[in-house]
Amino acid sequence: MKNIVVLVSGGGTNLQALIDAQKRGELAAGNITCVISSTPNAYALTRAADNGISTEVIRRRDFSSFDEYDEALTQLLQSKNADVIVLAGFMTILGKKVISAFENRIINIHPALIPSFCGEGYYGLRVHEEALKKGVKVTGATAHFVNEVCDGGPIIIQKAVEVQNGDTPEILQKRVMEQAEWKILPRAVALFCEDKIKVIGNKTEILD
Ligand code: GAR
Questions:
Q1: Which of 146, 159, 145, 156 has its CA nearest to residue 208?
Q2: Ligand 1 mean position to 177 CA, how many Å?
Q3: For the chain, which domains are there?
Q4: For residue 15, which atom of ligand 1 is closest to its CA?
Q5: Catalytic residue set
Q6: Pairing between β-strand 106-110 and β-strand 84-87 as defined by DSSP bridges
Q7: Is the pLDDT of residue 90 over 90?
Q8: pLDDT (mean) for 63-90
Q9: Is 140 in the pocket of ligand 1 (CB under 6 A)?
Q10: What's the mean per-residue pLDDT of the chain?
Q11: Ligand 1: does its nearest atom lie under 6 Å from the Cβ of 175?
Q12: How many Cβ atoms from other residues are within 10 Å of residue 147's Cβ?
């Protein structure tokens, strides 16, 4: 059984999708053991508490340097015996230490089809604003491993979502969450827990 630790910053709808998947028995080889937030106000913390999952808060601004924060987050995750770490709307950049301590064991959900609308500065609603500005007809979501390149690690699953006439960033965000993120993130985590993701260089092969 793998320990799943989920990192959050906001509403936590992706965390909820993971909790729901666990309740349906879809994460049979894993267990969500801890939720860690970058802010004490995240509603995701309430979702965790409501489901009996332990919580922690670690704020970047409580550390005088980024290196100290990186070290503290690494130690916190190690103290939780994390086998897999899920970034479910976690809005603080990860440092080198934590990324190398958990190589190919950190899964992020990004609300676009990487390599479109990704990289530094592309998070949350901003991603959908840019997609609408460009006029793409198809967008989607990507579950991928985290490496030192922002949104550049091996892709695990992608799912496309159509853009529709009259979409606002908020409407598109909701459709991408419902049709893509909430489906592929729990699936990627389940595949990881079942040892069904083979990483070959910067690509993955799903052994399903
Ligand atoms: C989600 O749309 C997630 O894909 C995005 O933030 C939102 C968090 O929502 N993540 C990024 O943009 C990362 N670059 P949630 O708190 O309701 O899961």
A1: 156
A2: 8
A3: 1-102 (3.40.50.170), 109-208 (3.40.50.170)
A4: 18
A5: 110
A6: parallel
A7: yes
A8: 98
A9: no
A10: 97
A11: no
A12: 17
Judge if the beta carbon of residue 112 lies within 6 A of ligand 1: no
Contact 38/59 with Cβ under 8 angstroms? Answer: yes
Q: Under a CB-based contact definition with an 8 Å cutoff, are residues 34 and 54 in contact?
A: yes
DSSP letter assigned to residue 61: G
pLDDT of res. 25: 97
Q: Given its phi and psi angles, is residue 89 left (phi above 0), alpha (psi -120 to 50 degrees) or beta?
A: left
Q: What is the mean pLDDT of residues 48-77?
A: 98
Cβ–ligand 1 distance for 123 under 6 Å, the answer yes
- For position 208, what pLDDT does the model report? 76
Tokens 């267990």 found at? 31
Hunting for tokens 């997609």 — which residue is that?
131
- Binning pLDDT at 50, 70 and 90, where does residue 93 land? very high
Type of residue numbered 116: S
Q: Please state whether 84 falls in left (phi above 0), alpha (psi between -120 and 50) or beta.
A: beta
Using most ligand atoms within 8 A of CB, pick from 7, 14, 113, 144 the residue to mutate for ligand 1: 14
